[in-house]
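Please fill in the sequence for the structure shown.

STRUCTURE ENCODING:
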């Protein structure tokens, strides 16, 4: 077996110089990536940024135009899907409608020639894992969307793949079910020790579930890091804007506020809204006089849109902390404060 002589030899998944061209479109435009064994890894990006194509290249449903795919230290770039120790859970579940839930889960074992008794036991166990042990006798159409989703997961985990590829697996679920399934997915991944590669365009989902996230744009990884790194120190205006809401300061504004001529970002929750006062500015705090444009009630707090006296648009997030001392109302004149340390420099646009 050839190895690339670096991390590709030890990582669960390694991509090297990966490219996929569809006609004029470079769907994947030079991706280098190592995903560790047992990692919950998310690929996050807007529609059309190339996440699904990367997933399909890993699974073997697409053939790379250039570059290599490694699984567990083996170059599988030219291997067929069935020769790869990965399993894919698609958004549309792809269950067999005429089979019972239990038979759906056992199907992959049957294809692999596992005997009837053994596969029944293993399928029942997989259904227990996704807490559907009681529903093995039903048909898919007799289940809710969330239950069907779990059947699709059970069907994947029963095969005990080293790597599970999940393409927007929670996309069809309502918010409540989605949050429940997020917790279940995370626990499942931890308990089974399977490497998860999770495709989503939901930044909150990626932040809450992942060990690491790759943020995609136009077929390339814009930034790779832990949820905390991605959120707190975004490397570009693109990442800062896509992952969460942010206040972006262009070079001229940064020059004026901070004395540094480069793009900066500050998160809404770092802004404090106080009544206008004559309190002196400390060296480590920025204070701006502003007017409240709109206050949006969020349940857990308020999102407040402001315009500073010199025309800068800002968004602040007020969280309820027991006493909401500065309920900002539309038209109020206020002072917005934030620490210099909370303003993150962004890399110059490429
Ligand atoms: P989504 O979140 O909408 O699934 P994505 O980030 O997963 O988007 P891809 O599905 O990987 O993006 O698509 C990346 C680009 O490649 C898009 O411009 C898409 O139109 C194009 N593309 C994907 N598959 C094909 C194909 N089979 N033939 C032609 N173009 C394709």
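FILLED IN BY: designer on duty
SEQUENCE:
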């Amino acid at each position: 077996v050839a190895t690339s002589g670096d991390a590709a030899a030890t990582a669960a998944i390694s991509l090297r110089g990966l490219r996929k061209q569809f006609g004029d479109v470079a769907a994947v435009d030079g991706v280098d990536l190592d995903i560790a064994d047992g990692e919950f890894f998310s690929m996050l990006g807007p529609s059309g940024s190339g996440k699904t194509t990367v997933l399909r290249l890993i699974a073997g449903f697409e053939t790379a135009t250039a570059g290599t795919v490694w699984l567990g230290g083996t170059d599988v770039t030219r291997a067929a899907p069935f020769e790869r120790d990965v399993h894919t859970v698609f958004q549309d579940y792809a269950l067999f409608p005429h089979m019972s839930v239990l038979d759906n889960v056992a199907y992959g074992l049957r294809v692999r020639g596992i005997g009837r008794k053994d596969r029944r036991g293993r399928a029942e166990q997989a259904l227990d894992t996704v807490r559907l042990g009681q529903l093995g006798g039903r048909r898919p159409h007799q289940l809710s969307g969330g239950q069907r989703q779990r059947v699709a997961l059970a069907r994947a985990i029963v095969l005990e793949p080293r790597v599970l590829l999940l393409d927007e697996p929670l996309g069809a679920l309502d918010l409540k079910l989605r949050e429940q399934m997020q917790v279940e997915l995370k626990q499942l991944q931890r308990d089974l020790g399977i490497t998860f590669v999770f495709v989503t365009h939901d930044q909150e989902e990626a932040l809450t579930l992942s060990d690491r996230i790759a943020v995609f744009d136009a077929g390339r990884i814009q930034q790779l890091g832990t949820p905390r790194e991605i959120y707190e120190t975004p490397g570009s205006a693109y990442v800062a804007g896509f992952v969460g809401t942010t206040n972006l300061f262009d070079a001229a504004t940064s020059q004026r506020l901070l004395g540094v001529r480069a793009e900066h970002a500050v998160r809404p929750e770092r802004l404090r809204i106080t009544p206008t006062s004559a309190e002196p500015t400390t060296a480590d705090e920025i204070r701006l006089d502003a007017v409240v444009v709109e206050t949006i009630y969020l349940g857990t707090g308020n999102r407040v849109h402001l315009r500073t006296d010199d025309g800068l648009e800002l968004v602040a997030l007020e969280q309820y902390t027991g006493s909401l001392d500065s309920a900002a109302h539309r038209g109020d004149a206020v002072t917005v404060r934030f620490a210099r340390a909370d303003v993150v420099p962004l890399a110059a646009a490429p």
